[in-house]
Amino acid sequence: MEGVRAVEELLQQDRYRVDQLYALESWVAPKSDMPITTVTPKELGRISQLTTPNQVLAVVDMPDPVSPSPKPGWALYLDGIQSPSNLGALLRIADWCGFSEVYGGPGTADLYNSKSIQASMGSFLRIQYAPATLQELVYLRPDAPVFGADLIGENIYAVSPPPGGILVIGAEGPGISPETAALIDRRLTIPRAPGRATESLNAAVAAGILMSWLGAGAHV
Question: Considering only CA atoms, which of 121, 165, 160, 105 is closest in space to residue 140?
């Protein structure tokens, strides 16, 4: 995990154990008991996975896998989101919109890919994330409505969002898989402006609009 703001937030929580910090001499650690190795800018550049290295890099233990444990409210289900950057962005948006749970279906990128971690901007520390199938979630929350993003669906602005449920976002290109689609109760679409030829939205952009709409409905 890299970057001043992200690492300083990391040091304020207990779920992820920090093994080692590598930092420039100019960086002051917020916790004096952390093991820190001072490095030069050139050395940090050699171990960093960023194009422009920041001041500090943390090596962190991955926690044990988390089993699905859906709670009341809204959960986000990712159906084969293959881009790590999109996964990280989706966690960040879910965090912003008040979603506390995100589940990665088969084919979804690895949460601990460096691009996922960086794109989440620290949201992976606050969001409960677990691999799961939609079948598992429906079994655990049988009364929760399942909404799916679809180009052919109900206009979101003509639907009153319920206070909780499961929102399904599919991969760009193939969309939601047939196995997952079979479990969706309602398909939702974000209306396109008349006369526009854009075929679709980026998965994270579409999810952001839908999560904002659902989150607003749940917290009014």
Answer: 165
pLDDT, one tens digit per residue, over 75-133 is 999 999 999 999 999 999 999 998 989 999 999 999 999 899 999 999 999 999 999 99
Burial letters 52-61, b for 16+ CB under 10 A, else e: ebbbbbbebe
Q: Which fold has domain 74-219?
A: Alpha/beta knot (3.40.1280)
What does the alpha-carbon distance between residue 183 and residue 146 come to, in Å, rounded to a whole number?
7
3-state secondary structure of 84: helix
Sorted by where each begins, the domain ranges of the chain are 4-60, 74-219
Query: Within 10 Å of residue 81's Cβ, how many Cβ atoms?
Result: 25
Backbone angles phi, psi at 215, to 5 degrees: -65, -40
Say what the pTM is: 0.88
Among 67, 70, 66, 78, CA closest to 141? 70
